[in-house]
Amino acid sequence: MAFSIGMFVRSLVQRNRTSRFRVIVMLPLVITTFLMARTGYVQNRVMQVRNAVIQKGPNQVCIINTAKAIAEETTKKKIPQQTFSFTSYSEALSSQADSESKVVFLAFADMGGFPMAMNFYLTSIQRYDIRNVLFVSSSEEFCSRFQAIEVACFVYMNESAHDKASVYLSKDFINKMNIRTYMILEALQLGYHVIHSDVDVVFFKNPTERIFDVCHFRDPEKVCDVAALWDSGAHNAGFLFIRNSNASISMYKSMEHTAKTTNIDDQKALNGAMRSLKKELRITSLPGAEFQSGLQFFDNSQRQFAGDHPCTHCIVMHNNWIVSMEAKVYRFKEMHMWLYDQDEYYSSTQRRYLAYQNPTYFGNDSTTLAAERSSLITALAIGLILNRTVILPKFVCAKKAQQCTILQHYLLGIFDQSFGSSYREHTFLQNELVPLTVRNSSRWTYVLLNSTELIPSFGVKVFRYNESQEIRQETIEKWFGNETNSVLQFHSLYNVPRIVLKNATADKEFKGKCEKAFVKAKWHQF
């Protein structure tokens, strides 16, 4: 039956003409409810809630829908589409900046950094429902992928190395970083205030109001021109607020000149411009306890694994002070700060895993590291034979003073060239993105021993091998080939003889990968 506001109101009046006061009071509410239903507002809000990120704790989050699911759900419900592509930078900024404050979040990345940018969106932008954000890129493909999931993106300028991750301080790296200078300067000249964030950043809350407080944004007499994350002796160009002012525009014009005439990256240019314009600029450092660099958050606070010293006062953390994209991603994953479930990295119910521990310190660091390296090669070989992904153990570091990740020992970028798809981080099975059927699947703990070794603990299932120099693939398949549990759990894999693959070519290839994979890392993966 057709329905209208007028019919509904007339029925109320006809029922009781003495209730005019009630009709007058109820009428605005009725009209509002009707319009909300007709325009799909309620449906839109339901979608926003369903696609939200649920916070499980200070360092633990789980996401309801991946980017792909968001797009599918939107199509299914036929919600009116908003345009997320633009014909000009001015149009993009006008669309995305907050209409009242004129503040816009700008984040630059290219296809080489797409997974990191997606993680930034999921952990920080979507999670805290930040609407005034614009992703800026040098890659058409990058923007098309974001626009497909209804995230605003603008191709600011093309860059020849847009499709690969760039090495820190390389020419490509500096060129990409300088694009940030150009896009921020133009935004300032168009009248906007900018919160600029690198995509290797995680928010613990929306930082806007705290930045406004620190910068005295609403006090014309005290308001700052720039408020940046303080990073061990310098201001960090990866996270900062820049107010639209003559002084800040002068600062970015100076940085633009530096970008065009030197090979200096934008962070050095930023600090140089601050020094040269210190009489004109009002500069504020964001509080170090709340806005932390990677050095402060990970190293100084001794955080390596999820749950280590939860930061209850953190607002922003920049995952810097480490080299290579692979290492940054791994560090996020160990801390449960990675939500991008690419290729069902977490959510697969079909993939099978192999886990083991490193429980022993062998008297000195070098002997212990050698034993742990041998154990990892054994695990990778068994994983290859059984088609199981290896879950890395904790490693012993600094004369047994602490347990650490693989990052403290080996260059992950090199390791990944051989085994990038063959392993998961240590805290993988504690991550709530992993299905419960996987996390709770292990029934037995296995141990491989020679004929004379003592059983290390009660409750383990022992497989013994002869005193030989190798174990054949056929033996591994006989022992574990019929195991159906999602996780095959070993107590440890110390002193296991070399495992030989039955295909000679495959065995030679595996040995070659192992010879290349283990390159000793210096501090922060240098």
Summarize the structure in words:
- By secondary structure, this protein is an alpha/beta fold.
- The chain has three domains: 5-39, no CATH class; 77-200 and 207-287, Spore Coat Polysaccharide Biosynthesis Protein SpsA, Chain A (Alpha-Beta Complex), CATH 3.90.550; 342-525, Rossmann fold (3-Layer(aba) Sandwich).
- The chain contains 18 helices and 22 strands.
- The chain has helices spanning 5-15, 20-39, 41-50, 67-77, 89-96, 114-126, 140-148, 171-189, 208-215, 246-261, 266-276, 294-300, 325-334, 365-386, 412-419, 436-439, 473-480, 504-517, and strands at 53-57, 60-63, 103-108, 133-137, 153-155, 193-197, 201-203, 226-230, 235-242, 283-286, 291-292, 316-318, 353-357, 389-391, 395-397, 402-404, 423-424, 445-450, 460-465, 470-472, 487-492, 498-500.
- The strands form six sheets. The chain has a seven-stranded mixed sheet with strand order 5-4-3-6-9-8-10, sandwiched between helices. A six-stranded parallel sheet has the order 17-14-13-21-18-19, with helices on one face.
- Helix 8 (171-189) packs antiparallel against helix 10.
- The relative contact order is 0.08.
- Residues 1-28, 30-68 and 70-81 have low confidence and may be disordered.
- InterPro entries: Nucl-diP-sugar_transferase, UDP-D-xylose:L-fucose_XylT.
- Residues 130-332 form the Nucleotide-diphospho-sugar transferase domain.
- Keywords: Membrane, Transmembrane, Transmembrane helix.
